[in-house]
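Late entry, 5,6-dihydroxy-NADP complex.
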Amino acid sequence: MANDFEFYSPTRVIFGRETEQEAGRLVRECGGSNVLLVYGGKSAVKSGLLQTVKESLEKSGIRYQELGGIVPNPRLDKVYEGIRIGRQEKTDFLLGVGGGSVIDTAKAIAYGLAEPEMDVWELFAHTRTAKKCLPVASILTIAAAGSETSKGCVITNETTGEKRAYDDNLARPRFAIMNPEYTATLPDYQTESGCVDIMMHTMERYFTNGGNMEITDAIAEGLLRTVMKNARILHDDPSNYEARAEIMWAGSIAHNDLTGCGNDGGDFMTHKLEHEMGGMFDVTHGAGLAAVWPSWARFVYQCALPRFVRFARNVMGIVMDGTDEEIALAGIAAMEAFYNSIGMPVNFSELGIHPTKEQIGEMAERCMAACDGHTGSAKKLSVQDMAAIYRMADE
Ligand code: NZQ
Ligand code: ZN
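Prediction complete; structure with ligand written out below:
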């Protein structure tokens, strides 16, 4: 039966070729006049996107400062640096040009500037909630994290090695500019990791033990099949615009909460397990998810058997006869085969990490601490369960 829900996805999406030229006009319409432009390494410079965005801001008479050099698994020190610049320059609008790491950094800076007397890390440590946030907008260059429309924000504290999420509607971007052409310069590994992340955002909401709706399931299953189909196309033909467009739009829908309407809030344990791997080993988020999901799935499937059977049939196309258990396991194996077919890892050794027994214990402890009591829906996990899943992925 469906749970009651609120669906809130206020981000204005501007999708397609040359949409980046609208940046200045859109910032102006959102009331911004003094922007902090946040970006990553070289990709947005090399593609010319950053220059086009600057010209668009200038054309609209908008002042801007820049904060480049945001790295994947974005770091708290860059957030503090952005807050320092923003205070000095009286920034009133954050514009992230890049992927999840850049947009999340922009969101964290926006929180920090809105409440300058507080330490922004407290949000990620879950010792307080935000009351305010400056407006944020995104110009997306990689389809993956969904941060361009999501309420999520994930930052790594490089001093403690903790990678932590803070979710709040306050940081939902005012607009998201998405031109699929710009994703064509992505290394294959990033494209494929992005596809896994997009699918996982929907799978986290799909493998639940409460409040499922037919319409939500149909959207989720259609999204998963579409991403798999187009991920395979991009694996062979990375410059295919239509496939890039399908994946890019799927990335936003997968994480703007549409595929969770009516459920019990989702499982999200694969993400929480992966965040500890990212914090400790700095792995690429989507690849980390692929490496741990099969172990999580085999550990929990008996506790949500009807969902795993439905997934096997409707998403993975399993047509065999057999017991529910056999069908569920065949669905998990098919997903593993799909990950491998697009060059993604399905265990720690394929991911290239080799945690010690102590490191596995530490990741499990940290994961439990980060859960804040929400330890899954398909199966509620104990800290021992978390360690067992890491060990299965390590075998
Ligand atoms: O820094 P540059 O040079 O731009 O290189 C980036 C980076 O190395 C590169 N890249 C991006 N666009 C490119 C490109 N290279 C060539 N051409 C382009 N068009 O890709 C690399 C990865 O970028 P990143 O922003 O880290 O990728 P992604 O979007 O996957 O973001 C991952 C981060 O988002 C978090 C993850 O944990 C991770 O920290 N997440 C954020 C969420 C949210 N805010 O809602 C939810 C997710 O579950 C996720 O946890
Ligand atoms: Zn994710």
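Residues 40-44, 72-74, 98-102, 104, 141-142, 144-147, 150, 152-154, 182-183, 185-186, 190, 194, 197, 255, 271, 278, 285 surround 5,6-dihydroxy-NADP (ligand 1) (CB under 6 Å). Will revisit in the morning.
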